[in-house]
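Section 5: illustrative case.
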């Protein structure tokens, strides 16, 4: 079954269609390479449109460029802002029901893009044998998911994504999966992934190392590598059993759908006078649009003599030394812990407390401990945990709940950055409230970054502390399996004022 990619180009070459054998492509895979602006996405769109009626397709889309295929060709757009367990189930359904889909990753950071893509590809690969139907799996910007070297992402995410890409290109054929990978630079793509492709479409390239590697893959001489610099946008040198037995230049044809963000076009500058433009830019900003600025961390103040004595007393108690200690305050350990928690709650009552530096909050806490004449004070790590409990417990009505005590025990074993998120979700579940939105989780944690809040949720789900459920309206609920409680469904994109977590 042949599709037309475009026309054969080149001086002295008769105008003829450039064809691709889709059935052969399923067995031999495809690698597309070209610098930014060479027309890779246009080529992939042309290939997908021409073959959409004949074979199931999946597009791993890191920029959201291919969601427009849904309106014209019926692809299902999958938003990757889901739990990894949910993505595994959906991938199995995609294979079972032979649905063409676009996995849209644009709202995730690079680390989570790699985790989501790796999880989805592995689920496709591990599908039951009766669901091994032919499928084209297109991965745009493949160097993100199969990097040649480690980058700024976590090693766990890199291994997951690279392993999934290797399975796709090396072992996917027998499972009906035909990998089509596109990359800006061959040098950034893992060699064991690129080497499994038998078909090549090489676009405009300027770096010597990429030109030489492209020429080697096509079986060209080194002196012929310079030809890749002369290619026009939308032109590719083709070679492979599904394309042609000898290298030819292909000019890609027109497409029916358009990306959401195309190539920028020059437009005339506005005709307003300089003074008018200045007034437009410097007009007063409405108060409701002004975003609060995170204060810079305050410098840590030098500890007082009282603080030093209290710290020495604490270390002596820990080491079992018989040296004389600071006079005791007459409280039991449980009573002292209750006092500490009460003072921590007093510290976070201030509306600006989430955005104050931790050092400043700790100094405030130490002052309150001295006023209460407590003989010892918790060190900074212990105070940090008390602060998380105080922030999540709200007005304290849930403190006596057995569910809350269990949540505190589980949170104690979590990393510092995930403790507060877990406790906020537990508080919402105990109160019978909706799952906190990304904005609520971010602001209660002292940040404006909703991406950071989502990353903490993903970490908790990956570790098994929570399970996220999404209904057909996109509402989100969180299950805490170790405690046996669940939040109500809430809008994950709700602003801070809606779906309140707990009383302020």
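Designed sequence:
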């Amino acid at each position: 079954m042949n599709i037309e990619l475009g026309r054969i180009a080149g001086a002295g070459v008769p105008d003829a269609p450039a064809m691709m054998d889709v059935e052969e492509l399923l067995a031999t895979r495809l690698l597309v390479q070209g610098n930014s602006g060479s027309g890779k996405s246009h080529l992939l769109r042309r290939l997908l449109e021409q073959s959409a009626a004949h074979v199931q397709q999946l597009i791993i889309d890191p920029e959201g460029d291919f969601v427009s295929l849904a309106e014209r060709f019926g692809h299902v757009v999958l938003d990757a802002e889901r739990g990894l367990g949910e993505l595994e189930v959906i991938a199995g359904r995609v294979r079972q029901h032979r649905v063409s889909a676009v996995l849209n990753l644009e709202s995730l950071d690079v680390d989570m893009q790699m985790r989501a893509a790796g999880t989805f590809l592995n689920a496709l690969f591990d599908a039951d044998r009766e669901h091994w139907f032919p499928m084209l799996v297109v991965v745009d910007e493949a160097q993100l998911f199969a990097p040649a070297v480690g980058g700024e992402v976590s090693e766990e995410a890199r291994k997951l994504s690279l392993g999934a890409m290797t399975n796709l290109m090396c072992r996917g054929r027998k499972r009906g999966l035909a990998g089509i990978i596109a990359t800006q630079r061959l040098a950034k793509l893992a060699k064991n992934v690129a080497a499994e492709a038998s078909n090549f479409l090489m676009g405009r390239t300027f770096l010597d190392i990429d030109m030489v590697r492209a020429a080697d893959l096509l079986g060209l001489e080194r002196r012929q590598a310079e030809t890749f610099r002369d290619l026009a946008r939308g032109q590719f040198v083709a070679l492979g059993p599904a394309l042609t037995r000898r290298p030819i230049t292909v000019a890609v044809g027109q497409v029916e759908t358009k990306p959401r963000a195309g190539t920028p076009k020059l437009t005339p500058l506005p005709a307003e006078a300089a003074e008018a433009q200045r007034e437009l830019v410097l007009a007063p900003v409405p108060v409701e649009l002004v975003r609060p600025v995170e204060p810079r961390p305050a410098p840590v103040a030098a500890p007082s003599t009282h603080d030093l004595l209290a710290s020495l007393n604490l270390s002596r108690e820990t080491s079992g030394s018989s040296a004389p200690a600071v006079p005791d305050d007459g409280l039991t350990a449980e009573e002292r812990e209750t006092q500490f928690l009460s003072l921590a709650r007093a510290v976070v009552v201030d509306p600006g407390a989430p955005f104050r530096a931790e050092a400043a909050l700790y100094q405030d806490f130490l002052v309150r401990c001295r006023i209460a004449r407590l003989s010892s004070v918790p060190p900074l790590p212990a105070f940090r945990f008390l602060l998380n409990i105080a922030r999540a417990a709200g007005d304290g009505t849930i403190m006596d709940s057995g569910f809350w005590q269990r949540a505190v025990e589980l949170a104690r074993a979590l990393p510092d950055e995930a403790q507060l998120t877990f406790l906020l979700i537990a508080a919402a579940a105990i109160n019978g409230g909706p799952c906190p939105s990304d904005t609520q989780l971010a602001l209660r944690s002292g940040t404006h970054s909703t991406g950071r809040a989502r990353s903490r949720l993903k970490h908790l789900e990956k570790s098994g502390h929570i399970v996220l459920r999404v209904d057909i309206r996109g509402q989100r609920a969180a299950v805490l399996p170790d405690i046996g409680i669940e939040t109500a469904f809430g809008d994950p994109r709700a602003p801070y004022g809606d779906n309140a977590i707990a009383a302020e």
